[in-house]
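Hello Y.,

Per our agreement to keep a running log of every chain we model this quarter, I'm adding this entry. I've kept the format consistent with earlier entries: sequence first, then predicted structure.
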Amino acid sequence: MSDVSTIQSHLERRFTDQRIVVWHDPAGEFAESLVSLQLPDVEMLVVANNEYGIKYRVLVEAPESKFLIYRPVLDPVGTANWLWDIELAYGIFTADRTALLTQDLGLVDSSLAEEVSAYRTFFRAGKRTQVLKELIAPEDDAARVKAKMCAVLLGQREHSMSELTRTLLVESAKDSDGKYKALVEFDLDTFYWEGVSKIYGYTSDSPTVADFVLWIFRKAIDGFSADSHRSYREIQLDFGSFRNDRRSQNALLVLAKTAAEALDYSSLIENSTFRDFAGNDLFAEIEQRIISDLAHTIEAQATVVREVLEVIRSRQSSLWIEDYRYMYGALGAAAAFLAMTTDQVLSIDSFDEGLRKYSSDWYKVDQLYRQFTYSFREAEFTKPLEALRELVESRYTNQFVYELGVSWQQQVDQRQQWRSDELRNQTRFFDTYVEPVISDRDKKVVVIISDAFRYEAAEELGARIRKEDRFDASLEAMLGVIPSYTKLGMAALLPHKNLAYTPKGDAILADDQSTMGTINRGKILSAVGGTAIQAEEFKAMNAEGRRDLFKSHRVLYIYHNVIDKTGDDKQSEPRVFIAVEETFKEIIELVKKAANANASNILITADHGFLFQDEPLADAYILTEQSQGDELLAVNRRYTVGRGLKRTEAFSTFTSEQVGLEEGVEIQVPKSIHRVKTTGGGSRFVHGGASLQEIVVPVLIVKKKRKSDLRSVNVEIFPETDKITTGQLVVKLHQTEPVTDKVQPRTLRAGIYVGDSLLSNQEMITFDQTSEDARDRYHEARMYLGPTANDFNNQTVEFRLEELVSNTNHWKVMSKVQYVLKRSFTSDFDF
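Predicted structure for the entry above:
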């Protein structure tokens, strides 16, 4: 309520039993308020050297009417005051602002009038007063009133020390001080710092928010350990809230960067190792130290993969993880890669054994190399990983790829026919995977063909698809065609009886029909009730259009090209592993759109694989010798198609009949991983040859399920007592099962409550262990009781695990257990 409305209320009460009210306002404080008063049937008279006239008016001219006589100046004393008799008869009304404010705020403690008076400037703005009135409770004492005044100035409704401090820290992180200056302007900064001193323990002759921030981080570095004077439990609890609460988390990260620099934290941890920082994510410098030390340790192979992966897993909940996620990804891949390739024996006793070993095990090396290279390229800071990168690059090219290429080449040299008893030939893809499904007239198939989507990438995609709700995926391998390039690979995937080169070698014919381009492939598919479409066109269609397309065809081939398009361009060639990541996302999108169009049988395959090394190859891997022959129809770094080709030790030579094509041409591919030296284009991304990376082609069989099959891991609470007797409680938690494709990680919030009142810190815990060993899946929640817990001593409290409801800010209780709070002492307070 404003001053005017308060005064009017008092005056209305006066006029209920008297007709004249004399209002003394010697300072003229309320002169402007007169026009705002609404007093029906009351005439207002202002004293201005007109006392006789006023007296004549109220006593003679209108002896029955009501009058408000406003006197804005000091009145004469005694008989010199011409209105003295009226004042004696009716009394004097004064509108003391402090008394009115205290009454208007609804405060019952009369002693608070002095506090209100001391902050008169605060109450000059009616809006501030009105907002404060909404926050005030009748029983509030002076401290609470001033705390709520601080809240008003800071533009919030919460007045606790933690919320006032949170607001000032967020403002400081923005390099701003407008709200803090408001506290100073209205003389409430002293009150705030007195509260900070009493509650948190921070003291200074000239306190500032910046100095307070440094003090907080110094205490955090020391673990908020108590000293001889006091405990720092309150700031420890609130600091945890500031860092984990979405409202202030980013601000605390900004302040942490400033504090780390000011405190020279890097020098304090210079000699630390990654093992010294379990559960510590105070500063970004900790992540940098862990990464640097892990890189050196992995490079020296002075640790086991399990330890590295456990450290990386534990860092995923760090507040700094987004800045370092790719670096940790690179470290994990490097550790696994080096472990797998150390003392690796790449012997192959037969053609089929080579295919079997690669499709079951060796592909993982290519996969780990890709994952390392991708993460390294995406990382913002790579200097700590440079030496590790050189080691990975050298071992991949000079050991794994080269030695595997040499060993595999021995089997390729012995082949008279390009076929296998271990893997189905790519040329039989339609007969093997599509025809058996559509032979049932009620079933249909969608085939997604991604250019150069190699086997190891398909394995990872399968794992990602299985993590999607209501999807399953299984991976098989095919023996790709020779040469392993787009024209022939795409043709091999179509329905046909025979494949052949055109006389000029510029196209592949399937049963005498051209297979070049989407339109021609669609014509070939139309014979079996199918059609073909480009991925971009399919995605651009609306949902109804996609359903109609699928409904009107038994077979739908969707052609996707990101990897090959990226790798075939010298400028974009270095981004080929980034293109693989993009392909994962795009294929999953295609799968979902196809499923929404009612497709339940989806196949994902490729025309060929590829070889790629992130660093340019040494000259030793580049052939200066060129293919020669009577007629060269197509020449590439990894293959030549022609007639009358000259046989040489540098190349493997096949007739078209030997590789399952109609007669008429010969094919040469460089042995092992060698490239033919040609002008233009890149040499790091290639395909067309006979390496395992090029010719082991994936078939990912995706099934859409009707019912949801995803769920989060189960977590149980194992209390070791039913009482809390100190300010700290450790609760044992158990992730009852490992995380798998269909059993997903879970992040829960732990805390101790009474009703809706939080009595402790809140700890975020991610349950994401994949270990089969139950002992690896135990966690501890360390709870610290705050000062409000003292109000519930000898009462029952609850330890709760809560989960955030998806796409909301609401937390639901997942599990809880009760304790009796039996502490033998109480301490501290908050306002």
